Amino acid sequence: MTADHDFDADRRLTALEIKASFAEDLLEELNRVVIRQQQQIDLLIREVQDLRAQRPEGTAAGAARLQDDLPPHY
What we know:
The chain is mainly α.
């Protein structure tokens, strides 16, 4: 009975080690995704800031200017 118990414990331990390995791999992949997304967010923030800096001073949100740009049939 001890041999069966040891075999069962070894099998369960091996299954836990495999699960832990997959969890570590998943965590590393998720960390890479988060890092890449943060880099993209930082880039987009810089681009928005650049666009805001290029906007003419007189327009708050550009809405008044868009109204002027509509073709006459609207």
